[in-house]
């Protein structure tokens, strides 16, 4: 009997230790989750507008393309106002023209004749939102050849 | 203790997940994406989306689809085929193995894959805030020993201790908890970005055995996009005569729009593809504007869909099984979001496939579960249950007032303070309800009890705190306590409800169906409550004011009170609201007259609610006590 009892106590102790370990682990997971959730909250506040702005950018692109076809002062004002509102939300255009190609902020669409590894033409403007890449600039990059490579 | 992460090292995209609090969680990369393109510039150590963006500039040094070379011999026909088609150099390395050469340096596929894994490791460490050293990595079921060894080596080069290499279909089955089944046959249908795999598994005693695999190594989401793009090009050409194929910028915009349309058509039946200023000719700018219906898309990709059927048939044949032998079907890969894919598979097997977990992430999720099992995270962790249905109590007007919402993880407790609905009410009845409907009568009553001995007081004054507490065993304890007398009553409801899964689903479904009529009934009940409360408040205000109000005003207020009471049980929401507002308006005059007398007629009408703290606006807010059910 005594032996049985001690075995069962041993078993219980193991079980207890296991349970305590599990409990601590769950608690730790929870604490870590809480911490990250706090961080993410800040992030969400900062980037709550991100998806809306991302969806508005093509409209801005199209207005800008339109202004290349139609010379109208009113249209210019609309574009200016629109861009200004987005700028107030922390949107910054990526300056790409004539810069060295940088994959962290630009996406190469095509290689063309021109200075090697340099942005020859910006096809679609890129933007940063609060210093985070929102949309890469789509660019044509110089191949270094006089003539087009292909 | 460090975590074991699960990694889906994919041909086109990779994904990782970890067990956290007993639940798998996908870890986003540092760019914020849940999946990382499996694209690498080895000499510059650029991995993922940035590597993808510079692919055009640097095609010779940008390595993609490295998984196709893992553990392969250089002279295998498949490798020779890739060598012909890929822009980067595939060369023969040591022992005749296929390697890649970038800027004069030879890399083994292990080393290239290791760069992806190393990025995932570093991103995971940043996200989790701890060092990660152990991983479970998935491979296709058809991978042979040397391919599996190569994958394991890639993990080791990246600094992981690879705890296990598991099959992708097994991971997907794990994610859906199919390891709990016994003696079942499972088909995993995996239609990803660039490859299609079908696997037949058998589960017995918690161990998965691969019975057969088949597939198409060059069929995936990209082919679907191409079909849409080709259609747009053809349509545009027939309308304008302009061929867009040579215009890289236009092609890029078509690709974006086509992919967007494909995704949209998984949830809507028609979408509009509009690309203004796509090109121009001598007549001016041209715009592309096309409607694409789901039916049209399905027609466009019909042949691609049919191409997935033959591999399924072959796999079944190899496994020596027929369609009817299959117990479970699991869907993996982004393309399985397309409703037609689901329909096709469902029609083929005659059963609903498992879906619900993000098909791009399900393999990584399964790998993390395996990691959790190996790390002891899963084995003994308390599986926390949730309450399947909302728990609440009946309040004035027959309204169901929820205390614990459905899907709340238990153990949990919630309490709220209620009050009486009539003057000198000395008892309240607590009717414990379960269900999703707005009105008490439509929900299931789990039990009721009476708390009596409440000291007599005007209605709304007593504070009765009701607490719902569900313990870890799912037993519900409901306590009602009068804060003034400290008297309390409780009830224990054993084993929840005895409802099975179907009944629960039925109740949730019914609530969704009746949601709008239920809301109307609830609104009516609440409006009645508000009207009733205001008549009571008005009477009290008249009594308190005594002769400070004029006889005319008194008659007017009494008239309005009677108007409400006459129709309280019969009127609709609008009429009641109107009459309540009318009473509220005249009521404010009481305050005006009282203050008018007190302050020589200088009172401002800005504080019309003086003397009626329980006005209709306050009635439904959570700040004050809520009326409890009246007991006669």
TrEMBL record, chain A:
Coiled-coil stretches are 2-36
Compartments annotated for it: namely: Cytoplasm
Please list the GO terms describing molecular function.
Answer: adenyl-nucleotide exchange factor activity; protein homodimerization activity; protein-folding chaperone binding; unfolded protein binding
A single GO CC term, please?
cytoplasm
> What PROSITE patterns does the record point to?
GRPE
BP term (GO), one:
protein folding
Q: Which UniProt keywords apply?
A: Chaperone, Coiled coil, Cytoplasm, Stress response
What top-level branch of life does the organism fall under?
Bacteria
Task: Describe the function of this protein.
Answer: Participates actively in the response to hyperosmotic and heat shock by preventing the aggregation of stress-denatured proteins, in association with DnaK and GrpE. It is the nucleotide exchange factor for DnaK and may function as a thermosensor. Unfolded proteins bind initially to DnaJ; upon interaction with the DnaJ-bound protein, DnaK hydrolyzes its bound ATP, resulting in the formation of a stable complex. GrpE releases ADP from DnaK; ATP binding to DnaK triggers the release of the substrate protein, thus completing the reaction cycle.
Q: List the PANTHER family.
A: GRPE PROTEIN (PTHR21237), GRPE PROTEIN HOMOLOG, MITOCHONDRIAL (PTHR21237:SF23)
Give the family, as the similarity comment puts it: Belongs to the GrpE family.
Subunit notes for this chain?
Answer: Homodimer.
Name used for this protein in its record: Protein GrpE
Q: What is the phylogenetic placement of the source species in the record?
A: Bacteria, Katanobacteria
Automatic annotation (TrEMBL), chain B:
Alphabetically list the UniProt keywords.
Answer: ATP-binding, Chaperone, Nucleotide-binding, Phosphoprotein, Stress response
Region annotation (Disordered) ranges = 591-632
Q: Which GO terms describe its cellular component?
A: cytoplasm
CDD domains per UniProt: ASKHA_NBD_HSP70_DnaK-like
Kindly summarize what the UniProt induction comment says about this protein's expression: By stress conditions e.g. heat shock.
Residues recorded as bearing Phosphothreonine in the entry: 195
The similarity annotation says: Belongs to the heat shock protein 70 family.
What is the name of the protein in this document?
Chaperone protein DnaK
